[in-house]
Amino acid sequence: MVAPLRGPNPDVSLIWLHHSPSAGKCECFTGAQVKALGVKPGFPGLILPVQSGQPPGFVIEMKSDTGRVSPELPDWLDHYAAQHWATAVALSRNELRSAAA
Q1: pTM of the full predicted structure?
Q2: Cβ of 3: how many Cβ atoms within 10 Å?
Q3: pLDDT by residue (tens digit) across 24-56?
Q4: Which of 8, 29, 56, 74 lies 20 to 30 Å from 41 when distance is taken between CA atoms?
Q5: How many angstroms from the chain centroid is the CA of residue 73?
Q6: Which residues pair with 59 in a beta bridge?
């Protein structure tokens, strides 16, 4: 998901773009192991901790056309917004690029 955004000559800030895998999609761990690792429900999938202009960073949740936002996600987005971070939920790469611009 992140590689197409970086392209052949990525913006320097995109080297800091991090994807947090969804614990619900991973069959490699049990629920207890995921919880022990510190995974929190609803945490946004992409985080860019780089200040570019006013916000100190950007958190984004990517969803497909049929994807659903978890009940916990709005709390995470509200938390980051209260810290003056930019936040977004994007349904496509185009929406992601627009939100990140």
Answers
A1: 0.76
A2: 8
A3: 655 666 777 777 888 888 999 999 898 877 788
A4: 56
A5: 10
A6: 47, 87
